[in-house]
């Protein structure tokens, strides 16, 4: 499969919030907290995870844009979910937070010079990564979880 153009990646990045909102439309609140399996996250937990991953990704992107080959630290999503009590988050605020963060970062990304996309950071687990890699990874990650959310929605909505 051919690599997407930068413009296509930026358009995908811009489109994720609308896609998320579209998938979440008309899901009853009782379904949002249902886990498809005991060890799998619910829709609500997945959305909270998307927000926290987005915050981490944005921080990393900004570091790469603003600094010279900065160190980028990993985080443990399972610990964040448990210790930040994703199950207690307000969904409307969480969805809005995702959209506002995406919109603000999109404005930055869409106004960068071409040379910025080759800027690098040193991720403690992945090694040297580029700003372009972070954009692509953010899109892949979001699409992966949108598919999971859709699958959970279909599983529980079809039984209502």
Describe the structure.
With 160 residues, this protein is mainly alpha-helical. It has a domain at 13-26 and 63-157: Four Helix Bundle (Hemerythrin (Met), subunit A) (Up-down Bundle). The chain contains 6 helices and 3 strands, in the order αααβααββα. A hairpin with a 3-residue loop joins β2 (120-123) and β3 (127-130). The chain is globular, with a radius of gyration of 16 Å. The termini are far apart.
Euclidean distance between termini CA atoms: 39 Å
Q: Report the sheet-strand fraction.
A: 5-15%
User: CATH superfamily of one domain, please?
Assistant: dinb family like domain
H/I helix tally: 6
Question: Strand order within the widest sheet?
Answer: 1-2-3
Largest sheet data: 3 strands, mixed
CATH architecture of one domain: Up-down Bundle
CATH class of one domain: Mainly Alpha
Helix content: 55-70%
The chain-level structural class is mainly alpha
What Rg is obtained from the alpha carbons, in whole angstroms? 16 Å
Instruction: Please provide the count of β strands.
Output: 3
Overall residue-averaged pLDDT value? 94
Order of helices and strands: HHHEHHEEH
Instruction: Give the overall shape.
Output: globular
CATH topology of one domain: Four Helix Bundle (Hemerythrin (Met), subunit A)
- What oligomeric state do the depicted chains represent? single chain
Q: Which blocks of ≥5 consecutive residues have pLDDT under 50?
A: none
Topology:
Blueprint: H1 6-24, H2 29-32, H3 43-66, E1 71-72, H4 77-83, H5 91-109, E2 120-123, E3 127-130, H6 131-157
Parallel strand pairs: 1-2
Antiparallel strand pairs: 2-3
Helix pairs in contact: 1-5, 1-6, 3-5, 3-6
């Amino acid at each position: 499969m051919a690599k997407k153009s930068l413009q296509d990646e930026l358009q995908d990045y811009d489109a994720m919030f609308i896609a998320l909102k579209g998938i979440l439309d008309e899901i009853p609140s009782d379904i949002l907290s249902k886990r498809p399996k005991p060890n799998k996250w619910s829709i609500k937990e997945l959305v909270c995870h998307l927000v926290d991953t987005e915050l981490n990704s944005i921080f990393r992107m900004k570091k790469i844009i603003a600094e010279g080959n900065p160190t980028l630290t990993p985080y443990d999503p399972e610990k964040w979910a448990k210790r930040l009590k994703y199950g207690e988050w307000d969904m409307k605020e969480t969805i809005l937070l995702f959209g506002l963060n995406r919109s603000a970062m999109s404005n930055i990304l869409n106004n960068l010079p071409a040379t910025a996309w080759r800027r690098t950071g040193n991720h403690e687990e992945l090694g040297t990564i580029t700003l372009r890699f972070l954009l692509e990874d953010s899109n892949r990650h979001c699409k992966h979880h949108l598919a999971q959310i859709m699958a959970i929605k279909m599983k529980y909505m079809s039984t209502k």
